[in-house]
Write a structure and sequence with these properties.
Nucleotidyltransferase, domain 5; globular
């Protein structure tokens, strides 16, 4: 049994070192190329600051939605317990892993040593002639349908990333 964990973050911006925060974390396990949706991890995160309007327009996460959510100090240890040492899958992994590692370090937690699989890098390897490798382009190329309203929410994006990985691995 080979277990992987596909995950995604939603954030208030691109740079944690400039004060941008995680506002949602989600993950789904993949066991032997099957996505186990009933064992997902999903949590909104209270960033203790206002979410910029342009971010809310992308992921539809509002200040009201996160005002009673747990803080990163509470959610990150739970997430690290969830992922254990399983290989992690993310689309544009340096972004998500960078945010994780920034907050792991900030909170004085033990850094992750998980193997990282980047579906963006995998797409570039498989589709060398293509220009675009963002998640929307990869999903379209692979014929994976998406729910537009759910797109740019962490759980749906983790699920779509897992689906893309499974399809691309079969192509290798």
């Amino acid at each position: 049994m080979k277990k992987l964990i596909a995950f995604d973050l939603e954030t208030t911006g691109l740079y944690p070192e400039k004060g941008d925060m995680i506002i949602e974390i989600a993950a789904v396990p993949i066991i032997d190329d099957e996505i186990i949706t009933n064992n997902a991890f999903e949590s909104l995160v209270n960033p203790d600051k206002e979410i910029p309007p342009h971010i809310t327009s992308i992921n539809h996460i509002t200040d009201d939605m996160v005002k009673d959510a747990k803080t990163i100090e509470e959610v990150l240890p739970e997430f690290l317990d969830y992922i254990q040492d399983y290989p992690l899958v993310a689309h544009n992994a340096p972004f998500d892993v960078g945010f994780l590692r920034y907050f792991i370090k900030t909170l004085g937690l033990i850094d992750i040593k998980n193997q990282i699989i980047d579906t963006l890098a995998l797409s570039k390897e498989l589709f060398t002639q293509k220009t675009y490798h963002n998640l929307d382009a990869v999903l379209k190329r692979l014929g994976i349908p998406q729910k537009c309203k759910e797109r740019h929410r962490a759980l749906e994006d983790a699920y779509l990333t897992a689906s893309a990985l499974i399809k691309m691995r079969k192509m290798l």
